[in-house]
Amino acid sequence: MIQHRRDNPPSDDDWTFIDVLMAKSSSEEELISDTTGFFIAGYHTTAFMMVWTLYYMCENQEVQEKVYQEIIEVIGKDEQVNHVNLELLKYMRCVFDESIRCSVLAPFAARVNMNADMVVQGYTIPKWTPVVHALGVVQMDDEIWPEPERYTIYWLNTN
Ligand code: HEM
After folding, report:
1. Which of 29, 63, 77, 128 is such that its CA lies 20 to 30 A from the CA of 96?
2. Any residues with CB less than 8 A from the CB of 26 and at least 6 apart, and which?
3. Ligand 1 neighbours (beta carbon < 6 A)
């Protein structure tokens, strides 16, 4: 792909993610590493999110209708959704967020505390401790979500 983009440079308004990586990487090694990393990390997560979102919208037709109406009102029928106007689709963002939460798409994250000992809510986490964030537990906590397993769009229209 990199070679293909090099042989066929994009026009100014046709840049894709890989073109940005190619322009910003400081070495060939960094470029190959980042490209591989982003593609591996980015494709199944995004694909599963899309599949779950479509599934929930089929199950909740009123949600699908609102997503549709928002696109019509904000973007219009003639323009396509893109990475710039996507920001304006506030309801759709809630739908994606709820799809990620309700499907528990990303059940955990993990980091090592690299810097120094730190205290979180009274608990000391020594330097070099691996910390696993139990996202799936939080996403299904009924003290936060009244009915965690029910698909519910938490939507406060402030426009
Ligand atoms: C709905 C889509 C996505 C979900 C649910 C998701 C979820 C996650 C989670 C849970 C982590 C672990 C974070 C941590 O341990 O702190 C992660 C890391 C990462 N994701 Fe995603 N991701 C998504 C899309 C993407 C996309 C599109 C890309 C790249 C184009 C990407 C690139 C990465 C990379 C590079 C890391 C490692 C970051 C690091 O170690 O600093 N992800 N993602």
Report:
1. 77
2. none
3. 37-38, 41-42, 45-46, 49, 100, 105-106, 109-111
Query: Please, which residues bridge with residue 118 across strands?
Result: 125
Which amino acid does the sequence have at 142? D
Among the atoms of ligand 1, which is closest to the Cα of residue 135? 10
Q: Whose CA is nearest to atom 27 of ligand 1?
A: 42
The tens-digit pLDDT sequence of the chain (159 residues) is: 899 999 999 998 888 889 999 999 999 999 999 999 998 999 999 999 999 999 999 999 999 999 999 999 999 999 999 888 999 999 999 999 999 999 999 999 999 999 999 999 999 999 999 999 999 999 999 999 999 999 999 877 665
- 65 three-class SS: helix
Which H or E run contains 109? Answer: strand 109-112
CB atoms within 10 A of CB 76: 10
Question: In the numeric block, which tokens belong to residue 103?
Answer: 């499907």
Count the residues in the chain: 159
